[in-house]
Amino acid sequence: MVTIVMRTYERPVLLARAIASVQNQSFSDWELIIVNNGGDPSGVEAVVSVARTTTGTSKITVLHLPERVGMEEASNQGLRATSSEYFAIHDDDDSWRPTFLETAVRTFTEHHDAAAVLSGVTRVHETFKGGKVWPVMHENFPLDDSRLTYERLIGGNTFPPIAALFRRSVLDAVGYFDSSLPVLGDWEFNLRAVREGGLVFFPERLANYHTRTPESDRAAGNSITVGEDLHLRVKKELQARWDSEMEPNGKTKGAFSRQVEVEVDAAETRLQAEIAEAQRAQSQRSTVRRIAGAVRDPKRAIRAAVHQVRVLVKRR
Amino acid sequence: MSAAEVLDAHPNVTVLTVDFFDTMVTRTVAQPTHVFAVVEEELISQQGARWKGVAVERVHAEHRARVAAAETDALRDIAIEEIAQQLTATLKLTPAERDLFVHSEKATEIALAKAVPAGASIIAEAQSRGLRVLIVSDNYMSSSHLVNMAHAAGYSWVTADDVLVSCEHGGFKHNGVLWKVALGVAGVPASQILHIGDDHEADHVQPSKLGIATHIDTRMRRSHRDMHNTSPDVLPLSRIEATQRDAMYDSNWDVAHALGDGLVGMVVAAQIADVKNVLRQRDLAGIHFAARDGWLAHQVWNKLRDSDSSLPEASYTAFSRSVIWRASLTELTPANVGRFIGDDEVLTIARLERRVGCSLSSLYRPDESIDAQSSRAVLLENDREVVAAAQQLRRRVLGYFEKQGLLKPGHHIVVDLGWTGSTIADMADLITAATNGAATIEARLTGMYWDATPNRMRVSMHGYAMTEFESLDNNLRLLGVIKLLEALVTAPHGSVIDFADAAQDFQPIFVETQPELAAYAQLIGRVGQSAITSARALLQGTHPSGVKASDITGTALWAAIMQVGHTPRPEEVEALRIVRHVTSIDHEGEGTPLVTAAPASPKSFRQEQLPGLYDGLIHGHWMQGSLRSWSYADDTRWIADEIGNIWPSTKVQWVPAPLA
């Protein structure tokens, strides 16, 4: 069985979508623990009562926390309520494609020692305004085997929780999420988990990581997009905490983390430059194609040029 | 034209040359690139998801191989090894994986090969007359492979000496090079050669230049669609359409039958398979097929019940967006009055009264034309009467729902095409309120897109072929085909606009519109009849294509919707031009055409008008049908192209290349 812990706070529209993403799974042996993190219970209950009409009451449990606690404490409370073989943290704004659990559980059967299996991720930029949500853009979230090693993860988190299905025994081996962390608890946990069996990646993009665009209602924002400063501060605090822990390579964990962070940032900068260069080259190839097209079909080329000129004139 | 007649028309011929694919040999799928889908399906079943997406990559690899070859020699054809080389580079295949793919493709081609009836009979007739038969083919496969395929299709006489293939002779038929080779091998004057084939340029224009007589037969191409889109998901419809191609071989192509037997039959079969699946999972107080999108499914359900007593009775329940909304109305305000009247509508008091179901006081004459703003003002001045009429309608609606069993305590499912589910959500609110929560509703929809998200708070919904969790592009594509699907699955009656009172048993009152009646009589009725037969056969496992209900997964149904809705054939677009979509709240008027015309003056059309044009297309018409029709004409093609450039989801390729 898979336990899915879903933390939520005052986002009933997104919660309803997230529950549906679980209910749509082709793998049916799951239980959903919704942790209402101090929000209005009636809103959550209204959504859950609709969802329960199709899956019955036994598959969906709601924990109403009396007051808001940290995200990781909310996860821990959900996890302590269950004892399944696998677990996933499914945030209330994210979603899975229908075969996520089926594929992840099957992957576990081929990788008995893995701490977690992860799918490819699509990042969905969406706008949420006035109770309606609509996607603006989809892009491939950069994730592959190379980003799932301890040596890479130590520099910064590389995947959102929605991508992962964990083996529950990892909790027994490395402990629960660090509830003292207001953010980045998933990163800190992943670093402990990766040393307890490794992370196995399958490239099919079956997880949707939803982030809200700046024009969205603020209450619907992601913890990352809304609280970038907090993430940076907590990261520094964690690295400082790790300065007292020694790594096998002779460095402190904190120093190693900072070193990899710098290397990753530099690599990302190089990658961005390469992408920009590739786009420039693509643009040049496109120009060549346009010229070739103009030779083949001059009338169409003239029409297109006239349109472009009109657009430019109008812009001025 | 019989085989004998073809040959009798050329009495001096001593050599018959024959095109290979779709003249002599075809496959049991609808088009050539679907062979790669079968390969992908086989490789995934053997080796797992590593091979997912290889079919569409195979199409791209061939294109890249041709481009690379043309850089050094524009005349020559490529070989399968060059395609495999491109595929290897993109997918980072090991040598063993590359060999496995090539072997699988060859084995699949042989497994799917079958003789083309006309080609086979002309060849047999020619051989009986003592003519020499030579195969002349533009292809990347070797002559030995074509020999194996020919043997598999029943042409046991074929040897490598009988086959001339472009990849082995430095040139194509369609650039004329291979024809010069063929003349040499035939060893007779061109005037003694008859060629049969299916391609105008390669099989007629080029050989004719050399004096070779030709006979062109394109019937096996009638099942082709766009070649870019191929994945295992396309195969159920592909197999159905290949069966249609064979069944209609000796007759004209029947678009209505093809649509009904194929896409619509699959939609209906999926609606019922989904209901059966829910029945296995939970107790249901009622199953309700929505009028009108569930009419075909309800017909099939009742036919299935004749032979399967385990299937419970299901209702055919009439409701519409406007009726449910009016029945839910508790106050009329400037914010909601707009739902009675479209922004650009010009109405009369008489027509307004029909919309709201009560008499209206106003200074306008009953038949005087009034604009939308004035019409809304009239309704707001009569708000008490309008709300009272809505409350009366609510009582009639609930009386009807009770008669249909929808107020029975327990869990009900409503089967509909779907999209946002807002009407079913409104309906669920009415029922929940009337039963104090004792009756709950679940919507089982063919598809739903992102606007459905807020409605999930009000009603449980499931989209069979599509949900908002799919990609942005697919959500947009769904929007572009909604009008088509609604038109194809509809019932022989109009939309419900009211219900009779208790004395008349709350009978639904349907409004019939001339455009809908005409389309139904000419086309849609026959689509429906074929769909009923097809869906029943699919569900019972007796469809002549061999496709079964278990093959019609959500992704296969989505692929079928895309194959027809996103890459329609010209004859489908042409046939569906007669369909108009009547969208006004009272269903009066002429409605809007499914396939809309291009801007009247394409030469003076401005690029900055494109967003408005696109918006109108995607929300008001069958987008791809319209774009396709524009692309057929020289003066409007550029508009379709520009829309494709600006909104790539409208381009014909809808199967992504995930591994690239």
Describe the protein:
The complex is a heterodimer of chains A (316) and B (660). By secondary structure, chain A is an alpha/beta fold. Chain A has two domains: 2-242, Spore Coat Polysaccharide Biosynthesis Protein SpsA, Chain A, CATH 3.90.550.10; 245-316. Chain A has helices at residues 12-23, 41-55, 71-80, 100-110, 150-153, 169-174, 185-194, 223-226, 228-241, 253-296, 298-315, and strands at residues 2-8, 30-36, 60-64, 86-89, 95-96, 116-129, 132-141, 164-167, 199-212. In chain A, strands 1, 2, 3, 4, 5, 6, 7, 8 and 9 form a nine-stranded mixed sheet that branches. In chain A, helix 1 links the parallel strand 1 and strand 2. In chain A, helix 10 (253-296) crosses helix 11 (298-315). In chain A, 36% of the residues are buried. Among the domains of chain B are: 3-226, Rossmann fold; 270-322 and 392-503, Rossmann fold (3-Layer(aba) Sandwich); 596-654, no CATH class. Chain B contains 25 helices and 16 strands. The model of chain B has no long low-confidence stretch (mean pLDDT 94). Classes of the chains: A alpha/beta (316), B alpha/beta (660). The A-B interface holds A 12-14, 16-17, 19-21, 23-24, 46-47, 50-51, 53-54, 56, 95-98, 103, 122, 124, 131-138, 202, 204-205, 208, 300, 303-304, 307-308, 310-311, 314 and B 49, 52, 282, 411, 440-442, 450-451, 453-454, 456-462, 467-473, 475, 554, 603, 606-608, 638, 642, 658.
What are the salient characteristics of this protein?
heterodimer; A: 316 residues; alpha/beta; Spore Coat Polysaccharide Biosynthesis Protein SpsA, Chain A; 2 domains; nine-stranded mixed β-sheet; 11 helices; globular; disordered C terminus; B: 660 residues; Rossmann fold; five-stranded parallel β-sheet; 25 helices; 49% helix; 12% strand
Number of helices of chain A: 11
The dominant shape of chain A is globular
Proportion of residues in β-strands of chain B = 5-15%
Task: Tell me what portion of residues of chain A adopts beta-strand conformation.
Answer: 15-25%
Order of helices and strands of chain A: EHEHEHEEHEEHEHHEHHHH
Could you please say which CATH topology of the domain at 3-226 in chain B applies here? Rossmann fold
Q: How far is the first residue's CA from the last residue's CA of chain B?
A: 47 Å
Most residues in contact, chain pair and counts:
A-B, 44 and 34 residues
Question: What is the CATH architecture annotation of the largest domain in chain A?
Answer: Alpha-Beta Complex
The quaternary state of the protein chains shown equals: heterodimer
Low-confidence stretches of chain A: 311-316
Overall SS class of chain B:
alpha/beta
Rg of chain A? 23 Å
**Strand count of chain A:** 9
* Structure annotation, total helices of chain B: 25
The CATH superfamily label of the domain at 3-226 in chain B reads HAD superfamily/HAD-like
Strand order of the largest sheet of chain B: 5-4-1-6-7
